[in-house]
Amino acid sequence: MSSAVDAEDTNTKTGDTGYRGRIAKSEQTRDEPLEPLADHITDVSAMGGIKAHYWTKNKQWVSENVKKPSDYVQINHEQLKIDCMEWGLSTIEIENLRRLTPEVVQTEGEAWHIDYDFQYPANEANEANFNYCLDVAINFLIKKQEFDSSRKWPKREKSFPAPPVYIGKFIYEKPTQTASVIHIVQERYYYSVERIVAERK
After folding, report:
1. Stated pTM of the model
2. Helix, strand or coil for residue 113?
3. Which of 11, 45, 141, 196 has the most crowded Cβ, counting Cβ within 10 A?
């Protein structure tokens, strides 16, 4: 049976591992394993994957474990579970969504790679499964948007008068006068105050 990958010198980037690489044209059979994709990595850079396990972002790990394009997508299941609980989602439904849909990866060059079980079309490529997975996916996006929109940040619309800064005064490394002096206030300098750290007794 041939090939899960047929990319002709296609630029690829990982979805969750944060690696960008290249995949040479090749075919995969049961007797002929795919050539390690990491051998074709030409540009390793952080493109994402901030929640993936740190070891999946290592070039050696990629070389040893990535055998096909979908392997570039690595999921931190512990972090996913925490996110689902924060967003008010069922972890079981998210797991169902992953199991009941093909693995799909878009690479650079607008190429799509699809990986699914041989029996999938005959059993799950139907309207009922489509509707269920679509509902779960839409609910996932809505919950995440609601969670993100609930964040609040301090406003910066109004200004506050800065405390006086005197020429020749010391600026300390830490908010204590026993700390090391890192600067002395001078003329013709512009100084801005970002935070106020105070002690009250």
Report:
1. 0.53
2. strand
3. 11
